Amino acid sequence: MSRLSIATATATLTWTTILFIALLHPVTVVAQSISDPKPTLAVGPGSLGYVYLGCYNETLDITNDRAIYGGNVTKSTDMTVEECLEACKGRNYDYAGLEYTSECWCGPYLSDLSQKLEDTQCDLGCAGNNSEACGGALRVSVYKLESSSAVRGSSGLVSVHLAAALALTVCVVTITL
């Protein structure tokens, strides 16, 4: 046999082996992907007066502002829902949002351009606890601060707003007299 024939026979055998393995491999991968579904992430109910609002889209493609804006961001390789809520509470921000496993966005505003999505869209686990949902790629798990004394419909909340309005009115009257 000539060198060319041996090389051709070896190349044919090699390609046949590769083709045979390639045909078997996708079947195994498909079987694994069907039997191993992506785990469901737990949504933290909130704490420290924060309640979970839902998963929202980021607004960078619409405007230069973030979904949660007017505040700051903290990044941590140990990020958890609790760590983010503590950081935002410590800075007195009404909104806390977790994005892309390790980002915690705090701010006084949630953009009107940000839309609520299905919770499954926030599909990345937190860097510090991968069983908790920490947003996703351009997806934010959003929490809002509700004062422990501010219960919806409570007369205490109304009286606080009324007292503030009266103080403003007295101030205006005093200035104009």
From TrEMBL:
WSC domain location: 49-146
Keywords: Glycoprotein, Membrane, Signal, Transmembrane, Transmembrane helix
Main location: membrane
Domain of life: Eukaryota
A Pfam family annotated for this UniProt entry: WSC
Annotated signal sequence range: 1-31
GO cellular component terms given for this protein: plasma membrane
Subcellular location: Membrane
Bilayer topology: Single-pass membrane protein
Protein name: WSC domain-containing protein
